[in-house]
Amino acid sequence: MAYTELRGDLMKMHIKEFAKLTGVSVRTLHYYDEVGLLKPAEVDGNNGYRFYDETSLERMQEILFYRELDFPLKSISEILSSPNYDKRQALKSQKKLLILKKERLERLIDAIDLAEKGQTIMTAFDNTDFKTARKQYEAEAKQKWGNTEAFQEFESKTAGYTEKTWQSTASGIDAILAKFSECKDSGCTPDSAQAQALVRELQDFITQNFYTCTDEILKGLGTMYVSDERFKDNIDKHGSGTAEFISKSIGIYCK
User: Fold this and answer.
1) What is the CATH number of the domain that holds 17?
2) pLDDT (average), residues 62-88
3) Is there a domain that residue 75 lies in?
4) Sequence-separated (6 or more) residues with CB below 8 Å from residue 102
């Protein structure tokens, strides 16, 4: 049975297909959902089936990169959930760590070749450089992305969120994004009273449900909405150019 479906322009995968594609067990995906590390894109209200999409795949890729680098799940969750998380910078740091890991494996392969010839080299087992670099990166990432006041508030506010609560907040955000699209299509400009009122509504919603969304944080979100393809594509589901319209509206609001 094929589980992949198409809804609009989005790919939708049943949890079993997503598990097979990513090499992660269904049980693990259930656990990731439970701890908030990777929520399904959609849960069928009738039968509870979990479905995942392309954004889910991108999130899983980030998680697997960190798992490959031996990061504990708690640290991965803290880093990825931070409002200030910088995916591009994270990938650069992950690449450096993976290169160190690759170099160690190459040393081990060379040591095996020498062992077959009767030579012994114990230094090949030294993994100090990688362990030190990983610990340093983990500390820096948590300090930069996980220890902000906004993140601490986010952790506190969402600690008791149920699956239903998460779905409700996601729907709330989606409804506001749809309003932006309607505003744009009606001929409003980013500096119009209607668009600016929607920016305020978005800011208030984030503050009420996640963390205090200051103008500075809001401005950063506006930039991310167009610079991060995941966010841009998701927002533009409501209509081409919606992400850019929201970003410009936020830029004007934050001035």
Assistant:
1) 1.10.1660.10
2) 78
3) no
4) none
